[in-house]
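User: quick one, fold this
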Amino acid sequence: MPEHSPHILVADDERSIRLTLETGLTLNGFRVTCARTGREALEAARASRFDAVVSDIFMPDGDGLQVVRELHAISPEIPIILITAQGSVELAVRAVSEGASDFIAKPFEVAALAALVRRHLNARHEAERGGASVGTILLDEFSRSGLVGRSAVTNYTAYDA
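Assistant:
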């Protein structure tokens, strides 16, 4: 994995989820470091720089919202995406108010999570550069998949058949 690939911290107490996310996110071009607990995630965040965090909200060693608050204090600009099997609208609102960037309920497709992480990274990058249109962010995201391309502007007139 190239050194310039975005570095993602994944925190989940379930080994199978950690392995699935590590493998899936790596295949989607990210470098991944895993933590088994909220405490491990906080230690890793203090020791290394991460571009984003993907964390389960319910882990045995404490309140996931407290982990979000502490991660946000360590690195206020870092996107934090929470995952949970026990999601609710109320919990999602609380998580975002505590500093989470997004919330995704289990089960989910790893490719969808990777796209969500990439979208948050692109938005942060564009904000740091002084902003860009949503269209530019989405074009950058989808151009990697081969679904959208760039071309010169042309004059086009549509006719009804």
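User: anything notable?
Assistant: The chain has a mean pLDDT of 80.
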